[in-house]
Design a protein that fits this description.
By secondary structure, the chain is an alpha+beta fold. It contains 17 helices and 27 strands. The strands form 7 sheets. A 6-stranded mixed sheet has the order 1-12-2-3-8-5, with no helix packed on it. The longest helix has 19 residues. The radius of gyration is 27 Å and the shape is globular.
Length: about 625
């Protein structure tokens, strides 16, 4: 026990077969090795041995379309083995030059390979933060998360080159990942890390996080497809009912598969992390941060989050919206179709849990829909900004929506609900939005990305009517505010609304604090974000992006300073916000007022006809 032992896990990733006419022996092949040293868990080392390397090529760290963590900042000690040399082309790209003769054709294609190249670097992990997001790499004494695009750089000119990966882990650690094993998954009684994996392109390597450590692992098979649940605990004890966890996840898997008709993967891994938060979908795995006590709580809505991320396996990863590509090392990509990819996924996370009897946030669908519509009207940007524009601003810093706040998740969930009601009514309950999802999956899974017009075609097919064209023309293409009443009427529901003053739990009017502060990436200046152009902040002449110098002479250095000011405000207060514009500082006087909010209530129409009542009962039961 006095000597540290290292366990080797050999993971083989082979790309697809060489193209016709290509000579396999001269095509590049990559062998990655990721090594974790238990005596230094501040990071891990990566080496890449490139066989038949071109004489001049680039390696890049990919940018995720949703979370651009810029992990190139944590690449340390990058070096090449002589005689190869390198230069850093930009923050995320390295240019490598090897020794050896080559012949370059007029189209700049290298036809003779250069020397074998060895590249090494270290991922020096950032210091632990108060909140750890589950998709970001980390290490501690019990394990961690490594791999994917946070760890590996790829050969830009040959993204489909054959790859092998070897893991070197501390003794006693296991590994769980979405990479395809060549051997069957181990059973629950004899967990062991897989050793070799089936052919896959580099994009799959960069989309497969690896949970490592002293894991709890469970396995189940549905319709011949294996699934794994891996849990990295923060303590030595298992403080929740693992049988209930496994049973509930199986319910989600079965029902989601029934919606689409088939699995888009050969096997799937649920990678669960104690003492983390957040979640991120992948092609055949998901990372989810959830404290053990959450699983022990009978009313927890964690299964909605699991259902949401799992549904993304189809609706985002295999059914891709326009604007996203497999590999990209440039600026973070944006898509105008996230209202469907995110919003409709929100709809189905709620539906899946209701259909399986798992806990949900709101007691009934009517209560849930009332809450959604209330939020829609509360954030005025939802009514004035088209879903495509809000989608494009979903994963970027404040600014693109001006002085409005809007949610692509909310817009999409409500649009999906309205379309579901339309389809049910037009087909007398024979079809629902499930038919749209199956249609889109059949047409676009792992194929060309979809556009709004493709969704319109699928809805038109499902409802067997022309009403879909008017819907898409008004609410998607023109971005008009949604009139919910006609769709609710199809199910015999009435919408009642009121606009009372916003109050706290004791019924006292609340001051208008519909504003927040933020700091632009790579800057230190505190900026303001306006969420409603009718707020007292906007009426004072403030706009999203303004740099806050001070408030009433008090310097604003961080978000906490700004929050402290907001917490002290009362209706009737007057404050002066000094905004920095160039070399000048301009005062803006804010007269703090109250504000009104929208309150929506949905009720059953007593005059509803039998068809409406029947459709409503189907809808209420989430059938």
């Amino acid at each position: 026990m006095g000597r540290r032992r290292i366990m080797l896990l050999s993971i083989v990733l082979l790309a697809t077969s060489p193209a016709i006419g290509q000579t396999p022996t001269t095509s590049p092949a990559l062998h990655y090795t990721l090594r974790i040293d238990s005596s230094d868990l501040s990071g891990y080392t990566v080496s890449i041995r490139i066989h038949h390397a071109p004489n001049h090529f680039r390696l890049a760290m990919a940018t995720h379309h949703e979370y651009d963590d810029r992990f190139w900042r944590y690449v340390a000690g990058f070096r090449t083995q002589a005689p190869a040399t390198f230069s850093r082309e930009d923050s995320a790209v390295w240019t490598i030059t090897t020794r050896g003769d080559s012949v370059t054709t007029p189209d700049d294609t290298v036809t003779t390979p250069g020397d074998e190249v060895l590249i090494t670097y270290r991922i020096q992990l950032p210091p632990p933060a108060p909140f750890h997001f589950s998709h970001r790499p980390f290490l501690n004494r019990t394990g961690g998360l490594v791999g994917d695009m946070h760890s590996f750089i790829y050969l830009v000119e040959h993204p489909g080159a054959p790859c092998r990966l070897t893991l070197e882990l501390p003794a006693g650690w296991q590994a769980s990942t979405g990479l395809d094993p060549t051997v069957p998954a181990p059973n629950a009684l004899t967990p062991a890390p897989p050793l070799q994996f089936l052919p896959a392109p580099a994009a799959q390597l960069l989309d497969a996080p690896i949970l490592v450590g002293r894991l709890h692992q469970w396995h189940f098979t549905i319709d011949g497809t294996p699934h794994e649940v891996a849990w990295l605990p923060a303590t030595a004890t298992l403080d929740f009912d693992s049988a209930a966890l496994l049973s509930n996840i199986q319910k989600i898997v079965r029902l989601t598969k029934d919606i689409f008709g088939s699995f888009p993967y050969k096997h799937y891994s649920f990678l669960l992390e104690d003492s983390s938060e957040g979640a991120l979908e992948h092609g055949n795995s998901v990372t989810i941060g959830v404290p053990a006590k959450i699983f022990a709580s009978p009313g927890s809505d964690i299964y909605e989050e699991i259902a949401h991320e799992y549904f993304h396996t189809w609706n985002l990863m295999h059914i891709r919206p326009s604007g996203y590509t497999d590999l990209n090392y440039g600026p973070q990509q944006q898509s105008p179709g996230l209202w469907f990819s995110e919003g409709v996924t929100m709809l189905y996370a709620d539906l899946i849990c209701r259909r399986t009897g798992l806990p949900v946030e709101d007691s009934t669908r009517i209560t849930h829909l009332s809450s959604l519509i209330t939020r829609y009207y509360s954030d005025t940007g939802n009514m004035v900004l088209p879903p495509s524009r809000v989608s494009l601003a979903a994963n970027v810093q404040p600014g693109p929506l001006g002085d409005y706040d809007a949610s692509t998740h909310l817009q999409g969930e409500l649009l999906g609900n309205c379309l579901d009601m339309l389809i049910r009514d037009e087909t007398d309950g024979r079809h629902s939005f499930d038919d749209v999802m199956r249609n889109i999956y059949r047409r676009f899974s792992d194929k060309a990305p979809f556009k709004d017009t493709d969704i319109e075609t699928a809805v038109t097919t499902a409802c067997e009517c022309s009403a879909a064209h008017t819907f898409f023309h008004e609410y998607l293409y023109e971005g008009q505010p949604v009139d919910f009443a006609p769709f609710l009427h199809r199910l015999g529901l009435r919408l009642q609304h009121d606009q009372p003053f916003a109050t706290n739990g004791q019924g006292q009017p609340l001051p208008d604090t519909r504003v927040y502060s933020w700091i632009r990436r790579d800057e230190t200046s505190l900026r303001i974000a306006i969420t409603n152009p009718n707020s007292c902040w906007a009426l004072a002449g403030l706009h999203t992006g303004d740099i806050i110098a001070n408030i009433n002479g008090r310097p604003m250095q961080n978000r906490q300073d700004f929050q402290t000011v907001l917490a002290t405000l009362s209706i009737g207060d007057t404050i002066t916000v000094f905004v920095k514009k160039g070399a000048a500082t301009t005062p803006h006087t804010v007269h703090v007022s109250g504000y009104t909010t929208m309150l929506i209530r949905l009720t059953e129409d007593p005059a509803a006809n039998p068809k409406q009542r029947r459709l409503l009962q189907q809808w209420l039961k989430s059938r």
